[in-house]
Write a structure and sequence with these properties.
By secondary structure, this protein is α+β, with helices and mostly antiparallel strands. The chain has six helices and eight strands.
Length: 193
Amino acid sequence: MSRAGAVVVRRATPADAEAIATIHVDAWRHNYRSWIAEATLAGLDVAARAAAWRSQLEAGAVVYVGTHSDIRTDTQAGEPLGWVSVGPFRQSESARPEVQTLTPGWAELYGFYVAPRAQRQGVGSALWQAALRWCLDQGYREVGLWVLADNAPAIRFYQRCGLCDLELDQGFAIDAQPLVEKLMARPLVMPPR
């Protein structure tokens, strides 16, 4: 897909649930095909994820979607091409003690995906800026996220966004497949007024 114009980012609504779920499944199948078992990827269900997203959005989840706008008519062009979900850092009982101690008061990017056909077109950068603004507006001092340890393209993107690997890797499993994820984070600084 060619870039039709600037990226427009807006807060997602329940009407975006199916598009968010489709991007989620497509991105997993495209980005994770080398790391997650093919049977797991084939079993991803857009309808089930759409229902879950609809419920989360109706409950007030903070999710931003990015689309391309048509600069000639100043209107949005098409469906969402990516999304980011953000909120308070989730505290897991199974997390390493260092993570539990370090992350209170942090924001977390829960999920961050761009449709494969729209990657490297500025959608991810625009979504990052929206998430960053939300974190700053909410008064968070740090933002973190978990990323698959083998996902070098995502790690490079997050590094360009100023996040650093905290070297607090932890194991987890998807459908009994062991995987490792990295905690990346960066401090948040309020811009001068």
